[in-house]
Write a structure and sequence with these properties.
This protein is of the alpha/beta class and 294 residues long. The chain has a single domain, classed as NAD(P)-binding Rossmann-like Domain (Rossmann fold, 3-Layer(aba) Sandwich), CATH 3.40.50. The protein is built from 8 helices and 9 strands.
Length: 294
């Protein structure tokens, strides 16, 4: 597929782009800084500028595409990851502005250019736990996509707003638009760097609901979205199968979630349910921290 990818230079994006390239896709990266990858061309652009996004949506992905003389090819899919990536990086209103206006511009341009597969990055923060003031517990466990999304911070608010906008674009266009509520992304080198602390002090993972997603498995998730057609508008949690700490489900519930309703769960099953992605997309996480922390 010929894919326009926004935010491919970021922590999560660069791993997903590499995964897609390895699966035979052509990727054009749109970001504020270039991605240093031999098989990727870059466009440096501001997603909050609608004109720039409309121009790039009708752009060559490289000089080689000029050779056939057939005009600019059409993108088969858009994957939108570009954003202010978390709270406390910019002012709150700037975070909200960039994330909402940027997402509107990207999806608007994609729909108007007839790109019928759009995947966008939402967030675990939409459930209102990660950036809450104090200790806010989930309404039930495991958290699935039906759990209420009532955040209290500008970053998570922007992600909820983007989901609403995407649903509206899908209703008018009929295209496939899938939103990914991505859990805390772990790069391969971070297992040895960070997980000893997670094991020694599990409470540092409370705001992430003790969950994580390996960056390579996130790439697989995007790939599965690209090859699965006809779902219309869908939201998916994205996580690995297990907790990010060396405690069992039962132990974590006893220590952190007393009084929270809990469904049937396996001994190490993630509190951030990925069951929907497995059922509808065939998602099968391949990496877990125990593989790299023996």
């Amino acid at each position: 597929m010929r894919i326009l990818f926004t935010g491919g230079s970021g922590k999560a994006g660069r791993h997903v782009v590499s995964y897609l390239i390895n699966n035979g896709h052509r990727v054009l990266n749109v970001d504020r800084v270039p991605l240093d990858h031999p098989d990727v061309d870059n466009r440096l652009a501001d997603i909050t500028d609608a004109g720039q996004m409309f121009d790039i949506m009708a752009s060559y992905a490289g000089f080689d595409e000029m050779e056939p003389g057939n005009g600019v090819p059409k993108f088969d899919a858009v994957v939108h990851f570009a954003a202010v990536p978390r709270l406390l990086m910019t002012s709150d209103n700037e975070c909200y502005r960039v994330n909402t206006i940027g997402t509107y511009n990207v999806i608007d341009a994609a729909v108007k250019f007839g790109v019928k597969k759009i995947i966008f990055a939402s967030s675990e923060t939409t459930y209102g736990i990660c950036f809450a003031d104090g200790d806010r517990k989930p309404e039930y466990l495991p958290i699935d996509e039906n759990h209420p999304v009532i955040p209290e911070d500008s970053y998570a608010m922007s992600k909820v707003a983007n989901e609403v906008s995407a649903r509206s674009f899908q209703r008018r266009s009929g295209y496939d638009i899938y939103g990914l509520r991505i859990n805390n992304v772990i790069e391969p080198h971070e297992y040895k760097e960070n997980f000893p602390e997670y094991i020694a002090n599990p409470s540092v993972r409370r705001r992430n609901i003790f969950a994580y997603i390996d960056a390579r498995d996130l790439g697989q998730m995007v790939q599965q979205c690209l090859v699965t057609d006809g779902l219309g508008f869908e939201i998916f949690n994205v996580s690995n199968d297990d907790h990010s700490v060396d405690k069992t489900t039962k132990e974590l519930i006893a220590e952190y979630y007393q009084g929270v309703p809990v469904g049937d769960m396996d001994e190490n099953e993630t509190f951030y349910s990925n069951a929907k992605a497995k059922t509808l997309l065939g998602f099968k996480p391949e990496h877990n921290w125990r593989m790299y922390m023996r």
